Queue: 2 jobs
Job 1
Amino acid sequence: MSSNFRLTRAYKNAKVVPFDDTSKFILFSDCHRGDNSFADDFANNRNIYFHALQQYFLKGFTYCELGDGDELWENRSFSPLLLAHKNVYLLLKQFLEAGRLHMIWGNHDMVYKDPNYVKKHLHSYFDPKTGEQELLLKGITYHEGVVLKHRETEQEIFLAHGHQADFMNYHGWRFNRFLVRALWKPLQVVGISDPTSPAKNFKELIKVERRVKKWVADNGNLMTIIGHTHRPRFPEPGELAFFNDGSCVHPRSITGIEIEKGTISLIKWQISTKDDGTLQIVRVLLEGPQRLSDYH
C-alpha cells in the first residue's frame, strides 16, 4: 500500500466542511500535549498556545487540529494529559459546543481512529471535586482528513496530518510507540532525540515532503495542508500548493495557519519583552496573507 493510496483514501473519506469568505479558521497541529513531565514538549508553550487559542475563540474562529494533538505514545492514557492541561481541554470543549471544532488524528494519537476509544476517554471525565462523571468532549469525532470546500468557487483545501506519506509512522505506529515508551522517552529527558520522528530526522522529513508533493502534483495541484514534519511551509502563488502549519512545540513559539476573508497566512505566536521588562504573548505574521483563489 503506497503513500499515494493512503493520501487518496484519506482525501476521498474526508469530512467535508463548507466555507466562504466570511469563514475564519485557525489550523494548529503537533501540539503533543503530555503529562507536564520533563518529556512533555508541549509544557514549555502551553501558556502561549492557550492564550492564542482563547483569542481565536473570542474572535469567532473555527479550530482545526491536524493530528498529534495528544501525546499518546509517551503516555499510556488520556488521564494524565487532562490533569496536566485541563484548561486547554475545557477551551476545546467551548469550541466543540459552539460547533467550531474539527479534529484529525495523527500517528501519535492514532488510537483516536476508534470511535469507542474516543467515547470512553474523551466524552467525560471523573471530577474528584464533585465525585461525579462530568462531560468533556461529548460527541467529538476524529477524522483522517478534512476537506474545506468553498461554497461559491468550490475550491477545495485538503487537511491531513501527513503521516500517510510515512510508512512506519502509519502502519508501524505501534512498534514506534513501543520504542518511544521503552527507550526514547527516558532518553529524551536527558536530551537525546527520537530518530523515528521526521521532525528530528532530516532525511525522513525530506522523504515525507517529497511524497506529499508528488501526490499534490498528481491531483491537479490540490491545495493541501499537513503537519507531521513540524517544518512550516508556505508556497507562493504559482508554486506547488503544499502547505505545512509547523507545530506547537517549537522552542518558545508555536506556528499555525489562518484562513480568513478568503486569504491564507502563516503565523507565529511567541513571548516578547516590553520596554518596561514585562513579558507579553504576541502574534507575528510570517507569510501572507495570500488570496486562496491565487492557488486555484
Note: The chain is about 30% helix and 25% strand.
Job 2
Amino acid sequence: MWGFLYVLPWLLGFIFFFLTPLLTSLRYSLSTVESSAQGLTVQFTGLKNYIDALTVNTSFNRVLTESIINMVVNVPLIVIFSLFLAVLLNQKFVGRSVARSIFFLPVILASGVIMTLESTSLIQAINDQNSGARVINAMGSFELERMMLQAGVSEWIVNYLTGAVDRIYQIVSQSGVQILIFLAGIQTISPALYEASKIEGATGYEAFWKITFPMVSPLILVNVIYTIIDSFSRNALTELIRETGFVRFNFGLSSAMAWIYFLAIALILAVISYLVSKRVFYQD
C-alpha cells in the first residue's frame, strides 16, 4: 500500500495528462495525418510510417545508432565519476558545502528556463568558453593517447580513455543528480561498519570495495537507469523527431520515429536492468 501511495502522484498525472497524448501518438504513427481548414484528417495506413522511418528516411537510422553509441560510452563514465565525487564530497574538509553546490550547479544551469535565454546572454558566453576548453582538452588527450600507445596499452582502452578526456565537460554537467543520490546513499551507511574495519586493519581502499561499494550498489542501478533515460531525453534524435513533426508537419512519420525510439529505449533499459540487478547487494 505504501508503494502504491508513493507512485500515486505520478500515476494520476500519467492518467489525466499523458495517457491521451500517448494513445493519440500511437494512432498517428499508424496513419497519415493531414492538416486542413477543418482540422486534422487522420487516415489509417498501417505500418507505412514505421517502414518509411527505417528504410526511406536517410537520417533516422544513423542518428539512432549514434545516440545509442553515445549512451554506451557516456553512462559508465558518468556513473563512475559521480560515485568517485560522492565519496570525495562525503569526506570532512573545509568548504565541503560549497564544493557540493559547485558540482550540482550544472544541473541548475541546464534547466529549461536558463537554457532558453537569448544567444547573446551570459550562458552563450560560458558555452563559447567551454568550446575553447574542449579544444585544449583535445590537444591534451592527443598527447595522452600517444604516451599510452607507446607504453603498450590496448588501442581500444586508449580510445575509450581519451574519449573520456574529450567528454569531460559533458560528463561533469550530467553528473549532478547522480552525485546527490550517491552522496545520500553513502551517508546512510552505518559508521560502525567503518570503525570495525579500521579495528581489523582495513585500508581506505579495502573499506571502499568491501563496505561502500556493496552498500550503494542498489543506487548504482538507480543511477544507471536515470543516466540512460537522461541521455536519451535530449539528443540529436529528439531534435529530428521534433523537426519532422513541427517543422515539416509530418506527424505520422514523427510519431512512428518516437515509438521506435521508445521501444529501443525500453529494450535497452530491460537488458541493463536485468544485468545490473544480478550484481546488486541488498542488506537485510
Note: The longest strand covers residues 31-36.
